[in-house]
């Protein structure tokens, strides 16, 4: 297929997953031209090049030789704004001085070090569990945990919108997998009723906060159903940690379910301002996972810098509840203002630090995303396969460190573009190009 054959307006990522030609690499050719055409229309807003830290303002290079864009950052899941805190940066420097840049080994062999062990103890305490273990990413935590525990005779029940790492963990495990309707305990119950006799072990997995929708799991009911059918339950707190609950413990803490959930899993890549992941549970089960999780055994341990950042971020979360208060003040203000301007939001009342504006068609999303980018607002455009086809959306991540000025400028930009493209019915019609952020 030559370049002129691919008009990106007529295709989505779903169209390039496979192709009829036998060569394994043949599908790379049409995708290459699709992306090339998409880029040439300047509506491709992925893999943008950051030239500064992902704080609330960020410098982004559009194209080589193009002047830097100074953008409001609302695409980083830096919910508590800890990635640039001096205490975190200092801890990273100290850890590198002490341990060097890497252990160059898996934790199972020579990659377990004192700071890593201290973090595991701190996480276990934070999650009210006997023990916790750390992986190099949250993705690895899900893949490793699920595949370490589930066998072919077992059944894993997952939400229809489960994160890719949950889905991939099930594939690696080779267990039976069924998905229930999004956040629907009745659908989960129907599945459990229908399959109860056919499988040995059962594991229900939900996200405390769903990553692409920003809604909270109906955890009390889901836990109740799982328990009635003798299923174990794992809650992925990637987007709940630091955000929900009186001490930032996540959805499990928010719903007062400590001790009711078998495994709590999380990532360092959001509120904990680092890279890595963890799972916490009973001592015996964590010990089992340590000895069977392939992503733990066959992958290098997280670097001292990552571990130190997460450790310090966790301490700050414990010491500074005001950070969470500020985050929620921002979430309520921003969500309320978008609603008042006529945006259709999901969920209708804010349940997390994620605000979702569903656009629907990929083509419209591309146009809107480009205009938002040109107005110097950095938000995420989410398309298939991250969400289902025709559910394309703008995904906005709020942070405790956003100022009222950041929020108001972002609102102005979104409203102008939303009205222009009839995503909202009403709103101020001022061109955001006049806003001071649009340098
Ligand atoms: C719900 C959920 N689980 C797991 C992960 C993986 O985390 P990590 O970025 O640490 O690999 C993510 C990341 O986006 C997530 O949203």
Compact description:
This protein is an alpha/beta fold and 439 residues long.
Describe the structure.
A 7-stranded mixed β-sheet has the order 4-10-9-8-7-5-6, sandwiched between helices. Strands 1-2-3-13 form a 4-stranded mixed β-sheet. The chain has helices at residues 28-40, 86-99, 114-126, 138-149, 164-173, 185-195, 219-228, 251-254, 283-292, 294-297, 304-319, 321-340, 362-374, 404-420, and strands at residues 49-50, 57-61, 69-73, 131-135, 155-159, 176-180, 202-207, 232-236, 263-267, 277-281, 345-346, 354-360, 377-378, 380-382, 392-397. It folds into 2 domains: 84-319, Aspartate Aminotransferase, domain 2 (3-Layer(aba) Sandwich); 321-439, Aspartate Aminotransferase, domain 1 (Alpha-Beta Complex), CATH 3.90.1150. The longest helix is centred in the C-terminal third of the chain and has 20 residues, at 321-340. It is globular. With 439 residues, it is α/β, with parallel strands linked by helices. The protein contains 14 helices and 15 strands. Helices cover 38% and strands 15% of the residues. Pyridoxal-5'-phosphate (PLP) binds next to helix 4. Residues 137-139, 142, 163, 165, 207, 211, 236, 238-239, 267, 269, 277 line the site of pyridoxal-5'-phosphate.
């Amino acid at each position: 297929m030559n370049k002129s054959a691919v008009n990106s307006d007529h295709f989505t990522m779903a169209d390039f997953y496979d192709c009829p030609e036998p060569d394994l690499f043949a599908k790379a050719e049409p995708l290459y031209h699709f992306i090339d055409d998409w880029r040439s229309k300047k509506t491709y807003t992925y893999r943008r090049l950051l030239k500064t830290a992902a704080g609330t303002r960020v410098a982004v290079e559009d194209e080589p030789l193009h002047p830097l864009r100074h953008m409001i950052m609302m695409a980083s899941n830096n919910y508590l704004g800890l990635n640039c805190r001096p205490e975190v940066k200092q801890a990273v420097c100290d850890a590198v001085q002490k341990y060097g840049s890497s252990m160059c080994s898996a934790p199972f062999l020579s990659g377990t070090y004192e700071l890593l062990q201290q973090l595991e103890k701190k996480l276990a305490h934070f999650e009210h569990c006997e023990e916790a273990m750390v992986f190099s990413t949250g993705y690895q935590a899900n893949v490793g945990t699920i595949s370490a525990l589930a066998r072919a005779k077992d059944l894993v029940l997952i939400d229809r919108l489960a994160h890719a790492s949950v889905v991939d963990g099930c594939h690696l495990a080779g267990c039976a997998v069924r998905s229930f309707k999004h956040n629907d305990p009745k659908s989960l119950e129907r599945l459990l009723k229908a399959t109860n006799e056919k499988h040995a072990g059962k594991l229900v997995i939900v996200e405390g906060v769903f990553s692409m929708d920003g809604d909270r799991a109906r955890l009390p009911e889901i836990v109740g159903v799982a328990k009635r059918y003798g299923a174990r339950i794992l809650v992925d707190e990637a987007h709940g940690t630091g955000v929900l609950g009186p001490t930032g413990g996540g959805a499990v803490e928010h719903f007062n379910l400590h001790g009711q959930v078998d495994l709590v899993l999380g990532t360092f890549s959001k509120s904990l301002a680092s890279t890595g992941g963890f799972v916490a549970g009973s001592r015996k089960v964590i010990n089992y996972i340590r000895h069977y999780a392939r992503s733990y055994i066959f992958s290098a341990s997280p670097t001292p810098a990552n571990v130190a950042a997460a450790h310090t971020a966790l301490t700050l979360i414990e010491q500074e509840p005001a950070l969470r208060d500020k985050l929620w003040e921002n979430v309520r203000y921003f969500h309320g203002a978008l609603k008042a301007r006529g945006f259709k939001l999901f969920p209708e009342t804010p349940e997390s630090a994620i605000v979702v504006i569903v656009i629907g068609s990929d083509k419209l999303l591309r146009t809107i995303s480009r205009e938002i980018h040109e107005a110097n607002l950095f938000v995420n455009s989410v398309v298939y396969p991250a969400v289902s086809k025709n559910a394309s959306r703008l995904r906005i991540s709020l942070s405790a460190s956003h100022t009222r000025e950041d929020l108001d400028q972002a609102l102005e930009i979104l409203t102008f573009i939303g009205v222009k493209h009839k995503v909202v019915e009403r709103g101020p019609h001022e061109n955001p190009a006049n806003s001071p952020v649009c340098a």
